[in-house]
Amino acid sequence: MRAYLPDCDLRVAATLDDALALLAAEPGVWTPIAGGTDLMVVHNAGRLKATRFLDLSRLAELRGIAEEGDCLAFGALTSFTEVREHPAVHRHFPNLVKSARVTGALAIQNRGTLGGNIVNASPAADTPPSLLAYGAELELVSPRGRRRVAYDHFHLGYKQMDLAPDELVARILVPKPQGHSFHYFRKVGTRQAQAIAKVCLAAHARVQDGVLAELRIGLGSVAPVPARARHAEATLLGQPVAALPVAAARAALLDDMSPIDDIRASAHYRSVVTQNVLSHMLRELATA
What we know:
- This protein is of the alpha+beta class.
- It folds into three domains: about 5-55, Uridine Diphospho-n-acetylenolpyruvylglucosamine Reductase, domain 2 (2-Layer Sandwich); about 60-175, 2-Layer Sandwich (Uridine Diphospho-n-acetylenolpyruvylglucosamine Reductase, domain 3); about 180-285, Enolase-like, domain 1 (2-Layer Sandwich).
- The chain is about 30% helix and about 25% strand.
- It has eleven helices and 14 strands.
- It has helices at about 15-25, 35-45, 80-85, 85-90, 95-100, 105-110, 115-120, 125-135, 230-235, 245-255, 265-285, and strands at about 10, 30-35, 50-55, 65-70, 70-75, 135-140, 145-150, 155, 160, 170-175, 180-190, 200-210, 210-220, 225-230.
- The chain has a five-stranded antiparallel sheet.
- Strand 13 (about 210-220) and strand 14 form a beta hairpin.
- The termini are far apart.
């Protein structure tokens, strides 16, 4: 049974200050929405519990992609289509382009937003693994001012975030890779398109003098939150790319995951496939 729409109240924020004032005046009462694509899924399933919504879609302050020194700054309302089409994103962050391309259908990509994908906090979301691999940082705004939090510390538990009731994600800041970089993104789903990930892995690496000098691996659909594969990273860092300890990295990866059985895949399947994707990534890295 669907949620009963007449019970819902929708307010459209005219300015960012107006939105923040409402959130501060009634903490926890209003649910911010942008594209609303995930909201409609919950509504159609009859699981929509929230009834007070604050529409942020008209806020110019949360839009745009801009180069700021060593970072690329994405407004929280940046759509997946804008991510796919922006030349600077293609130049610096190919994993983000790939993850945006596999997020839903074209209609979802036109309407869904990068900030919404983050704050919806689904462990199966497509862009978070890439943001983790690139070392992204979030800029949060409230009536008290602005603060920044490393994205790999933002998700605290399933649907739990380092985000106060009166805060919004304003921007996503992603540092541009330095030197010669390796980029890898792989999503495993039932279909090539319009499928929720069973497993997702994104990686960014830098090799210096034949040694793996920098590595970040982001995982999706294998833990309660989008997560860094820190154990696998630690096993691989500092190793010569011509002789990477693949077996040890596969074993370490198991400590980075806590997969579950659900309608899309079993925990065993997720564990084995994630290890296999890691092996494939390392083979590509060794020959890059």
